[in-house]
Write a structure and sequence with these properties.
Layout (H helix, E strand, L loop, with lengths): L10 E4 L6 H31 L6 H29 L4 E3 H34 L4 H4 L2 H26 L9 E2 L6 H7 L5 H34 L4 H29 L10 H22 L2 H19 L1
Parallel strand pairs: 1-3
Antiparallel strand pairs: 1-2
Length: 313
C-alpha cells in the first residue's frame, strides 16, 4: 500500500487461523471435508425438492432457497481459504476482498430473511391452517422470496460501498479465514465511526427485526400446539418446527457471538465462532432438516434410487 491512500491498495494478506505449516495441513483437510459434505448435502436437498412434485410446497420452496444460499455462501469463502492453506502466496486483491465481503454480507442477510419467512410459513400452517392455501399462495411465496433477495442484495451493496470509502494503511495482514467487515475496519487508518454506526444501526434492523418476528411467531406456535388435544398431533406439529428452531438457534447463536461486541474487542478468538456460522451451520442445515423429515427421507431415497436405476440401464 502506498501513501496510506485507499486507491493505492493492491492486495491484502489473508493469513487464516494459523501460520503453522502442520496446523495448516490439518486445517486444509478439515475444511475440504466440510466443504464437500456441505456441497453434497445442499445439492441433494435442492435436487430432491426439485425432482419430487410432492415437495413443491411453500416450506420446501423456502428450504431449497436456504440450501442454495448456504451452497453459494461456502463457495464464496472456502475455496479461497483452501488455496491459501496450500500456497505460500496468501494474497487477495482489494477488489477480490470487497467482492468476497459483498457476497458474505448479502448471503448472511439472505439466510436470516429466509429463516424468518420459514417461521412465518410454520406460523400460518399451525395457527391458521384453514387460511394456509390462500395466505401462502404461490404468488405470495414468490413475492416474499423476491423481497428477501432484493433486501439482501441492497444491504450487501450498501455496506460494500461504505467500505470503498475507508482508507487502509500500515498492516495489510488479515488474520482471518476470509475478508470480514469488522476485521477490515480494524485495519483502517481513516475515521470509521460513520461506517461502524451505519453497520450497527442497519444490522439491528436487518437481523434483530426478523429474529424478533421469529420469536413472536414461535410463541404463537407453541400456544397453538399446547391447545391441540391429541398427543400424536402435538408431536407431529412440533416435529415440523423443531428442525427450523435448531437451525435458527445455531445461526443466531454463532452470529451473536461474533457481531454483538465493539470492534475494539474483536480478536482471533472470534475465528471459532466465525467458522461455526460460516462453515459448520451451512454443513449441518441439510442434516438437521432431513433427520426427522419423512417426506425429505422419501424424496432423497427416490432421488438416489432413480440415479442408481438410470446408471444400471
Amino acid at each position: 500500500m502506498h501513501g496510506g491512500n485507499q486507491t493505492g491498495v493492491s492486495d491484502f494478506l489473508l493469513l487464516g487461523i494459523s501460520e503453522n505449516p502442520e496446523q495448516q495441513q490439518a486445517l486444509f483437510w478439515m475444511f475440504l471435508s466440510m466443504y464437500l459434505v456441505t456441497v453434497v448435502g445442499n445439492v441433494s436437498i435442492i435436487l430432491a425438492i426439485g425432482s419430487d412434485s410432492r415437495l413443491h410446497t411453500p416450506m420446501y420452496l423456502f428450504l431449497a432457497n436456504l440450501s442454495f444460499t448456504d451452497l453459494f455462501f461456502v463457495t464464496n469463502t472456502i475455496p479461497k481459504m483452501l488455496v491459501n492453506l496450500q500456497s505460500q502466496n496468501k494474497t487477495i486483491s482489494y477488489a477480490g476482498c470487497l467482492t468476497q465481503l459483498y457476497f458474505l454480507v448479502s448471503l448472511v442477510t439472505l439466510d436470516n430473511l429466509i429463516l424468518a419467512t420459514m417461521a412465518y410459513d410454520r406460523y400460518v400452517a399451525i395457527c391458521r391452517p384453514l387460511h394456509y392455501v390462500t395466505v401462502m399462495s404461490p404468488r405470495i411465496c414468490m413475492s416474499l422470496l423476491t423481497l428477501c433477495w432484493a433486501l439482501s442484495v441492497l444491504y450487501g451493496l450498501t455496506l460494500t460501498l461504505l467500505m470503498t470509502r475507508v482508507t487502509f494503511c500500515g498492516s495489510r495482514k488479515i488474520h482471518y479465514i476470509f475478508c470480514e467487515m469488522y476485521v477490515l475496519l480494524r485495519l483502517a487508518c481513516s475515521n470509521t465511526q460513520i461506517t461502524h454506526t451505519v453497520l450497527i444501526a442497519t444490522g439491528i434492523f436487518i437481523f434483530l427485526t426478523p429474529f424478533g418476528f421469529m420469536i413472536m411467531s414461535y410463541v404463537q406456535i407453541v400456544r397453538a400446539i399446547l391447545q391441540i388435544p391429541s398427543t400424536s398431533s402435538k408431536y407431529k406439529a412440533f416435529s415440523t418446527c423443531s428442525s427450523h428452531l435448531a437451525v435458527v438457534s445455531l445461526f443466531y447463536g454463532t452470529l451473536c457471538m461474533v457481531y454483538l461486541q465493539p470492534i475494539q474487542t474483536y480478536s482471533m478468538k472470534d475465528s471459532v465462532a466465525t467458522v461455526m456460522y460460516a462453515v459448520v451451520t451451512p454443513m449441518m442445515n441439510p442434516f438437521i432438516y432431513s433427520l426427522r423429515n419423512k417426506d425429505m427421507h422419501g424424496a432423497l431415497g427416490r432421488l438416489l434410487l432413480g440415479k442408481g436405476f438410470q446408471r444400471r440401464t
